[in-house]
Amino acid sequence: MDAAFTAEQDEIRRTLRELLAERCGPDEVRSAVRTAHGYDETLWRQLAQDLGLPGLALAEEYGGAGCGPAELAVACEEAGRALLPSPLLATAALAAPLIAAVGTDAQRTALLPRIAAGELTATLALPGGSPATALGLIGDTSGGAWAGGGRSGGVQARPGPDGWRLYGEAAQVLDGHSAGLLLVAAHAGGFPRSRTLLFLVRSDTATGLARTRQTSLDETRPVARVELRDTTAELLGADDTVDVSGPAGALAAVGRTTAAVLAAEAVGAAASALDRTIEHVKAREQFGRAIGSFQAVKHRLADLYVRVQAARSAAYYAAWDPAAGGLALAQALEALRATTAEAVQLHGGIGFTWEHEAHLYVKRAAADELLFGPVHRLRDHAAEQAGLFTPGVRKPRVEVAV
After folding, report:
1. Under CATH, what is the fold of the domain 7-120?
2. What is the bridge-based pairing of β-strands 181-188 and 122-125?
3. CB-CB neighbours of 211 under 10 Å
4. Could you say which DSSP state residue 183 is in?
5. How confident is the model at residue 402 (pLDDT cuts 50, 70, 90)?
C-alpha cells in the first residue's frame, strides 16, 4: 500500500477547498439549509458540472471519472471541513453504488449518467430507520429487521398488471424531501415467503408519494418522512436474477465503502473545528497573554491533534481496504465528538452561543453518531465479525520483532 496521495487526489483537495472556502462559509451554510432543498442548488450544479463530484467513483462508461473510494473520500473530507449541505453522500455513496451493483444494464444506462452529471439526485429509503443496521455496520442484515419487520411492518410491495405498487412509510430518509430518485427497501412475496427487495421510485412521476421534511438535530444533514400510498415503482434489477436473500449482500458491500467515506467526512469536520479553535486561542487573551500560550491548553490541543490524525489515517486505510470501514468510522466519530466538545469549551462563553459556528460542528458530531453509530456498536460488530470474542475461533498469531 502506497500511503502517499496522488497528484490527482491533491488537485481534487486543493480545488474543492478553495471553492468551498469562497462559497460555503458558516453564513452560507445557514442560508443554504433554510432553502426548500436544504442546500445551495447553484453550488451543487457547479460541484457536479465543473468538478464532477457525483461521478467521481462511477465508471467512465456511465459518464463518471472512473476513480475509486479514495478520491471520493478526499472530496468528502473537504465537504466535511465546510459542513457542506449537499446530496453528495446520499447520491454518490449510497444510491449510485447500489444502482451500479444491482441494477440492470438498462437501469444503469438510464440513471447513472444523469447522476454523474448532477442532473439527478438519489437516496436510500429504509423503513427500519437505521442506516447503520441496513448497511451492515452494527449488525447482521440477513434477518431483515433493518427493512422494518415482516408481514405488516415496513414497506410492502405488490405486483400488478402495470408494475409494482408500494405501501408503507420510511421515517428517516436522508435528503428524502428533495431527492429525484428514491431507492426503497420493501417486502415482497407475502408471509412466510417474504423477501426484501429494492425498488426505484421517481419522485417526478410516481403516484401516491408524500414527502415531509423533518426537523433534524443537524440542519446540514436533512431527513424526511416518506409515505407510499399505492405508489408506482420499478424493481431494481431483473426479477429472475434477484437473489432470494434480497439486497442484503449489496447493501453490506456498499456499507463498507460508505463507512470509509463517512469517516473521511467526519475527519474533515474535526480538523476544521480544531483549526478554528487554534486560531481562537492564538487571538484570545487572558491575564495579558494569549490563552493558547498556557501549557494546559497546549496539552488539550495536542491530544486533539493526535486523535484527528489517527482517525484520518484509519479513514484512508479503510478507503483502500473497505473491510476496515466500521472501525475507521468509529474512530472518526469519536474524534469528531471529542474535538467539537473541546472546541466549545476552549472558545469560552462565545462557543455556547447559537450565532457561533462551533455549535454547527457539535450538532454534526451528535447527528452522525445517531444516524451511523453509536461508536460502541460499530466496534462491537467489527470485533464479532473478526471472531475476537467467539469461543473456538482461533485468533491470528502476532509476532513482534525486538
Report:
1. Butyryl-Coa Dehydrogenase, subunit A; domain 1 (1.10.540)
2. parallel
3. 18
4. E
5. very low
State residue 300's pLDDT score: 96
Which grid cell is 99? 444502482
Query: What cell was used for 238?
Result: 431483473
Cα separation, 107 vs 122, in Å, equals: 14
The secondary structure element, H or E, covering residue 169 is strand 163-174
Cα(131)–Cα(128) distance, rounded to whole angstroms? 8
* pLDDT single digits (tens) 190-212: 656 678 899 999 999 999 999 99
Three-state DSSP at 393 gives coil
pLDDT of residue 393: 55
**Ranges of H-type helices in 24-56:** 26-33, 41-49
The grid coordinates of residue 168 equal 408503507
Q: Return the CATH number of 250-385, one of 3.40.50.10320, 3.30.360.10, 1.10.10.10, 1.20.140.10.
A: 1.20.140.10
What is the model's pLDDT at position 240?
56
Return the pLDDT at 400. 44
